[in-house]
Amino acid sequence: MSFWRKVVLLFSILLLLPSLTSVLSAAPYEGYNYSWRGTPEPAPVPYVFEARLTGEQLGVGGFRSPEDMVITSDNRIYVLDSGNNRIVQVGADFHVERVIDSFTAHGVLDHFATPQGLFVAQNGHLYVADTGNKRIVELTAAGEFVRVIGQPEADILPANFVYQPIKLTVDSAGRPYVIAKGVFDGIMQFDAGGTFTGFMGVNKVQFSLADLFWKRMMTKEQRSKMVLFVPIEFNHVAIDEDGFIFATSAEQSEEPVKRLNPSGIDVLKRSGYWPPMGDKIYSFTGTRSDPSSIHYVTPDKNGIYSILDQTRGRIFTYDRDGNLMYTFARFGEQQGTFKSPSAVAMLGDRMAVLDKGMNHISLFKPTLYGQAVRSAVIHTDEGDSDLAVEAWHQALELNNNLELAYIGIGKAELRRGNYIEAMQYFKQGMHQEYYSRAFAHYRKEFMWDNFGTILASLAAIVILLIAVRKMVRKRAGEPQAVGMAWYTMFHPFKGFWELKYENKGRVWFSLVLVFLLAFLYVLKHQYNGFLLNPIPPVYVLGQAKFVLIPFFLWCVANWSLTTLMDGEGKFKEIVVAGAYALCPLILVQVPLIILSNTLTIPELPFYNLLEAVAWLWFLGLLFVGMLTIHQYTVGKTIVTSFLTLIVIGIILFLALLFFSLLQQTLSLGTTIFKEIIFRIGE
Fold it and tell me: Which terminal residue of the chain, N or C, has fewer Cβ atoms less than 10 Å from its own Cβ?
C-alpha cells in the first residue's frame, strides 16, 4: 500500500471515529424482557439516545431540579422547573414560547413556591401543584390567573391536616385529582368548582402475620409506640385517553400501578405473565438491591403506558393487557443514562425523560425493534390483523425470544377465525388464557361438525366397557385378579377381608397395579393438555419415582411400625392391600388425560373435582385395608397411619445421611488414592 493511500485510509478512519463512537455508545444499557418463567431474556434495545435539551440551549438559563413535564398532543413541551419556580413552555420546533414565573391574582403579583406537579388541559389551561404555597393554581394558556384551589375543608379531614399537593391531573369535566403529601386515604377528588368531594382508590393496608402477632402480644402502651398499619400513599397520578386515572405507589407493593375507573375501582389488566411491577428479578446485594420503586406513569395511546423505576433508573412499557413490551435505560453518567429521573412523556413515537439530577431532558428515538413492537401492539389493539401480523413477524426477526409476538399473531389468527393456528401461536407464546379462548371456539366448531361421529364413539365406548365388565366377572365361583380388584373398590371391608383371610390377593397382580399407575402417571405428565401441562418434563420416566418410592416407603414403614404395635398384617399383605387401594387412581388417569385436552380454563374445576374424588376414594380404601389386615380399631388405625408418615420421614433422613457419608467417604478415598499416586510418582 502506497504512502498516500495509507494517509487517505487513516484520514477516513479519523472522520468515521466520532460516528462509530456514537453508534457504540448509543445504548449504554442492555435490553431485556421477562419470559413466562420469570427469567430475564436478552432483547434488542427499544430506544436509543437522540438528543439532550437543557435550559442553556433554550436560552432561559439552566434548569434547577425540574420535577414534572407535560407534552401535549401538538408536541408542546411544558417543563415545571421547580428549583427556579417557573414553567418553561417549548414549542414543537424546540424554541421557547413562554416562561411563566409569576402571575397577577386579584391585582397582586404572585409567584410559585417549589411546585412539584403540572397538568395541561385540552383547552390549554395549566394546573400547577404549588406545593410550597399549599394550593393548586389554574392559569390560562397565556399564563393568566384563573383561580386558586386552596386548603380543602371536610369533616373527614383531621383538624391538623396540612395540605401539600405534589401531583395532579384533571379530567375532561374539569375535576382535579390530587395527590397530597402524607395523605394515605387515596387520591383527593375535587369537583369542577374546586370543592373537595372525597377520596378515591385507597391502597390496601399491608402488614405481615408476624407484625399482627406481636401487636396482639404487646401492651397498650407498646402498641401506641409501634408504627401504625396505614395504607401506602400514592406518588403520581395521570389520566389516559379513555378518562381512566393511572396512579403509582413508590413503596413495595403487590400492585404498584393502578388504573382507576370513575368509581375508584382498579380495572388495570394484569393478563401478562407477571403483573406490571418493574423488575421481577433483582439482586439482594449491592447498591441497587431493592425491588423496583415506581414513581411515575405516563399513558400512551391504544392502552400503552410506561412506568419509571427510580431504583435502577429503568423505564418499563406495557400494553393494555399488562404484557411487558420492553424495558430500557439505567442510572449512569453517559448519554442516555440518568442520575435522578423525575418524569416521562411521549413525544409522538419518541420518549422524553426529565432528569432533575442532571437538569435536562433526554430525548430517545425508537429503534427498528422498538418501532416494530409498538406498531404491532397498536395495530393489534385497533384490530388491524394484517398490519399487526406483519409488524409482529418483523419483531420476531429481531428477537426470537419475544413471546409477546406469538401472542399478538395468535390474537390476529383468532380474529380471522383460524383457531388451530391461533392455538399453536398461543402455545409458543405460553399464554394459557388466550389458548383457552381459541380452543373454546375450535371445540364448538368441531362438535358441531362431528356430532354424529362423537355420539357413535361414546356409544361404542359404553358397549366396550360393559363387555369388559362381563369378561372380568367371577368364573366358576372364583374371582379373577381383576375382578377382585373391582370388587374391593365397591365392597372394601369384605374385599380386604377376603384378600387377607381367603388368600384371594395376588402379589404379582399387586405389583402390576403399582407399575401400571407409575406408567399412567408418566403418560399424564407427558400428555396432559396445555392448560395443565404447558411444558412436559424432559425426563419422562423419572416421573415414575413419584409413585414407586412413596408406595414402597409406605409398605416398609407401615410394616416396621405395626410389627411393634401388635399388627397382624404381613409385609406381603400390606403390599397387596396398598396396591388394591390404588385402583381408583389407576382408573381415573386416562379420563383425566382426556379431560385435560378437552376442557377450557373455566371448566378445569371439573378436572380437579374428579382427581380429588379419586384421591379421597384411594385414601378411604387404604384406611380400610390397613384396619382390616392389622385388625386394629379405627382410632389405632389413625394413630399408626400418622406414625407411618413420621417413620417415612425418618427413613428418608437416614437415607440422605447415608448417601452423604458415602459421598464423603468416596471423596476421601479418591483424595488418598491421588496422594498415593503422587508420592509414588516422586
Answer: C
Q: What is the pLDDT of residues 131-152, one digit of tens each?
A: 999 999 999 999 999 999 998 8
User: Which run of H or E residues covers position 62?
Assistant: none
One-letter identity of residue 241:
E
Could you give the CA distance from residue 457 to residue 466 in angstroms, rounded to a whole number? 14
pLDDT tier at 477 (50, 70, 90 boundaries)? very low
- Nearest-CA neighbor of 639 among 649, 648, 627, 621? 627
DSSP 17-59: HHHHHHHHTS--S-EEEE-TTS-EEEE--SEEEEEEEEHHHHT
Number of domains composing the chain? 2
Task: With respect to residue 426, please indicate whether it lies within any of the assigned structural domains.
Answer: no
Say how far apart CA 216 and CA 328 lie, in whole Å. Answer: 45
**Distance in angstroms (rounded) separating the CA atoms of residues 625 and 562:** 14
CATH code: domain of residue 59? 2.120.10.30
Spatial distance between the Cα atoms of 323 and 377, rounded to a whole number of angstroms:
10
Domain with 211, as residue range(s), is 31-366
Boundary residue ending a domain (329, 351, 366): 366
What's the rounded mean pLDDT across residues 363-374?
96
Within a domain: residue 108?
yes
If phi over 0 gives left and psi between -120 and 50 gives alpha, with beta otherwise, what is residue 622?
alpha
487 and 358 in a single domain? The answer is: no
* 350-355/341-347 β-pairing: antiparallel
| Domain's final residue, options 325, 342, 366 | 366
Q: How far is CA 117 from CA 186, 234, 245, 398, in A?
A: 17, 13, 16, 39
Alpha-carbon distance values, 167 to 150, 246, 247, 606 (Å):
14, 12, 10, 49
DSSP 304-343: -EEEEETTTTEEEEE-TT--EEEEE--BSSSTT-BSSEEE
Q: Which residue has the higher pLDDT, 137 or 209?
A: 137
pLDDT tens sequence across 491-510: 999 999 998 888 888 899 99
Query: Are the C-beta atoms of 229 and 250 separated by less than 8 Å?
Result: no
- pLDDT, tens digit, for every residue of 391-413? 999 999 999 989 999 999 999 99
How many CA atoms lie less than 13 Å away from 508 in the CB half-sphere?
2
Three-class secondary structure of residue 479 per DSSP: coil
Look at residue 601 in the predicted model and tell me its pLDDT. Answer: 93
> Is the CB of residue 587 less than 8 Å from the CB of residue 482?
no
> How buried is residue 353: exposed, middle or buried, by Cβ count under 10 Å (0-12/13-18/19+)?
buried
On whether both 352 and 210 belong to a single domain, the answer is yes
Between CA 513 and CA 129 the distance in angstroms is 74
Grid cell, residue 469, equals 365388565
Can you list the alpha helix ranges (DSSP code H) found in 40-108?
Answer: 55-58
Residue 50 has pLDDT above 50, yes or no: yes
Which residues in 642-677 are b (16+ Cβ under 10 Å) and which e? Answer: ebbeebbeeeeeeeeeeeeeeeeeeeeeeeeeeeee
| H or E element, residue 620 | helix 604-630
Is 198 a domain residue? yes
Residues 489 and 631 grouped into a single domain: yes
DSSP collapsed to 3 states, 427-463: HHCCCHHHHHHHHHHHHHHHHHHCHHHHHHHHHHHHH
**Is residue 374 domain-resident?**
no
Question: Which set of grid coordinates corresponds to residue 110?
Answer: 404572585
> What is the distance between the alpha carbons of residues 71 and 80, in angstroms, rounded to a whole number?
12
**What is the length of the chain?**
682
